[in-house]
Specification:
Blueprint lengths: L2 E12 L2 E12 L3 E5 L6 H8 L7 E6 L2 E2 L2 E4 L2 E4 L2 H8 L2 E4 L11 H13 L3 H14 L15 H13 L5 E5 L7 H16 L4 E4 L3 H7 L2 E6 L2 E6 L1 H6 L4 H10 L1
Parallel strand pairs: 3-10, 3-11, 8-9, 9-10
Antiparallel strand pairs: 1-2, 1-4, 4-5, 6-7, 11-12
The protein binds adenosine-5'-diphosphate (ADP) and magnesium ion.
Length: 253
């Protein structure tokens, strides 16, 4: 199996506040890797490091075969140019708790936007691609609607379609269902489950323990900027080795 993500001793701080204290974490191609952990433990920061949105200040982080933020040229590592940074990020889809759709565009326009403006796909082709991805998330018949005409669950599915339209090699999800009303959570999890079944490599920060158990290949418990424990979801959930993990699990169950 090829490692899509390989983090070793990753450190990151905001000023004096150390947020990641040496994270070791790997994701193989096609794997669904779920991350759980208390608020403030560095989960979102780690995801942002994975797609180069935050600088890695220590350790090593390789994603999709690249040392994040650094290119090897002339036998030495150099900081990425903006162009190299953009080329890297294009391969990684990210879905946030808040969907951040463009309010004045239809669902189809939201999905077509990246292919047109980033990939240079001709508008009519991008529209076809957008329709394919909206169909994939079960929203083909809502393609003409603006975000305010869609439920939160539908908006999040548009956000997933928008990320998929860039044809990413890795998808990152940061609590994608946390902002949703409870009855809308499942429709989003079902889309993510289908994506996993299609073989997408995914890192999913979530409090949906059922999803992690059923769909995840690996489960990682984060606390205080480190990986406390990691394992197969069923095994970790049935028999957590650390007290912190047990306490956390009893708080979300
Ligand atoms: P999680 O996603 O696990 O809740 P975060 O990665 O969002 O954790 O945050 C980890 C820590 O970093 C928290 O203490 C948070 O307050 C701090 N933090 C997050 N973003 C910033 C920022 N932009 N500037 C300063 N501190 C931040
Ligand atoms: Mg977070």
């Amino acid at each position: 199996m090829n490692a899509v993500v390989s983090a070793s001793g990753v450190r990151m701080s905001y000023g004096d506040v150390q947020v990641l204290n040496g994270v070791d974490f790997t994701v193989a191609s096609g794997e669904v890797s779920c991350i759980i952990g208390p608020s403030g433990s560095g989960k979102s920061t780690f995801l942002r490091c994975l797609n180069g949105l935050e600088p890695v200040l220590g350790g090593s982080l390789r994603v999709l075969g690249e040392e994040v933020g650094h290119a090897l040229r002339d036998g030495r590592y150099h900081p990425w140019t903006p162009k190299e940074f953009a080329a890297f990020r294009r391969n990684i889809g990210m879905v946030f708790q808040r969907f951040n759709l463009f309010a004045h565009q239809s669902a189809a326009e939201n999905v077509a936007c990246g292919p047109v403006h980033v990939l240079g796909t001709p508008a009519d082709r991008a529209r076809t691609v957008a329709m394919e991805h909206l169909d994939r998330v079960g929203l083909a018949e809502h393609a003409h609607k603006r975000p305010h005409q869609l439920s939160g669950g539908q908006q999040q599915r548009v956000a997933i379609a928008r990320a998929l339209a860039m044809n990413p090699a890795l998808m990152l999800f940061d609590e994608p269902t946390s902002a949703l009303d409870p009855e809308l959570v499942d429709e989003v999890l079902e889309v993510m489950k289908a994506l996993a079944a299609d073989g997408m490599t995914m890192v999913v920060v979530t409090h949906e323990i059922g999803f992690a158990r059923e769909v995840g290949d690996r489960l990682t418990f984060f606390a205080d900027g480190v990986v406390v424990e990691q394992g197969r979801p069923r095994e970790l959930l049935a028999a957590p080795r650390h007290e912190r993990t047990r306490t956390f699990l009893s708080s979300v169950a």
